[in-house]
Sequence to fold (225 residues):
Amino acid sequence: MNKIKVLLAEDEASLAMIVKESLESRDFIVFDAENGEEAFEIYQKKDPDILVLDVMMPKKDGFTLAKEIRLENKNIPILFLTAKSQTADVLEGFNNGGNDYLKKPFSMEELIIRIKSLMNRIALKTNFDAIKIGKYSFNFTKQTLEYTSEIEQLTHREAQLLFHLFEKKNEVLDRTFILNKLWGNDDFFNARSMDVFISKLRKKLKKDSNIQIINIRGFGYKLIC
Fold:
């Protein structure tokens, strides 16, 4: 398997060094940059597989950099590192092409899990029409669930939610992340709405007793299959 090439843009030198050394010790290839302009130059020369961008950087911030890269590359995964926690900042990241975000301080294990998850998502996109969830066949493109010969139509949001659960299967899907990603913010009413959608998915997957969607209180949901 080819090593994953990571472009790390982080202006805090001590943190950048720790992240770079930790990723390299796990067999990643890391190109590091201390500002947005340098990161863009490295992106053009090195063709990385994934971008890990600090939001607050000199010369060019992470959001601006992501927006520029998205003009020429719609598919490369982008993960933001941010000290900000307000919903508006998270939404700005998504609006500028981000796929995920990680709040500082973070553990290296969590960063590695997020990177691998985003890379797995890219791999999944090559086979959207044949995702196996237990005994079910999930067609993300057509938004259908098939069990033996029975086909059930999903709504757009059900399909989106199930896809995110699947790409994090046997791991916790962060509640705040998915609310911001699919509902636009993580307020009380949207959280209740998501609970309803989770219940609907449980019912639609109940024919396979080995499939469970577990509520991890205070954190999110886990699809076990």
Observations:
- The longest strand covers residues 5-9.
